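Go through this chain.

——
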Amino acid sequence: MKWTQDGPPVDRPAPEPELSPYQQAMRQRLLAAPVVPAPEPWRRIAYAPVGGLLGIGFASHPVGGQDLVLVVSHDGHGLFDAVTGEKIARDRDPDPDADRDAEAEDGNRDADPAEWCAGLGPIAGSRVRVAGLFGGGLHATGGDGWKVEVVAPVWPNERVLLCRYGGLPHSGPHGEGWWHVFHSHYSELRAVGFSPSGQTLAVATSSDLSLWTRSADQNRRGA
């Protein structure tokens, strides 16, 4: 075998096919849909500027059991109560040894350290799975037929759609089965998804965090 510094010839890329009439109609439908409030039982409870946001993760409060949201940024870590939207803990200079201590405690030594972070405040000593710039992902479904979609009819500006019972943009008008609830036209989208309980929807960009919640009572009424 003879090694050379020359790589294989680069083929001329084939021209991209034009959008079909169906695709054009879908794109126009997405472009025409304004940002609207999420439908009942969802209510937006927080918008928090977070400069240099890298990722977020969900945890449960060890006492009340409500959803918590851990935010990881260049300026440290923060913990939010996903029922009230209140920031309940802050660490501007997290100890890198805390991740290793938490890893030893839960015994999960095979996980990618870029996708895990040590908890703080009421969840100190535990580890939280983080989704964002370095990978990972959140739940795309929240139970009771709720689903979240990310679309980009004008890339790279991404839009977040909250859908119910398969109400994707191609099946019904905007506001009846699908709602355009967030438009990331000013920052890069980092993570979008539901908490494991299905009670919280989070949208994180490189500059902020938005949270929507629904109570257990609202969950039953909206089923």
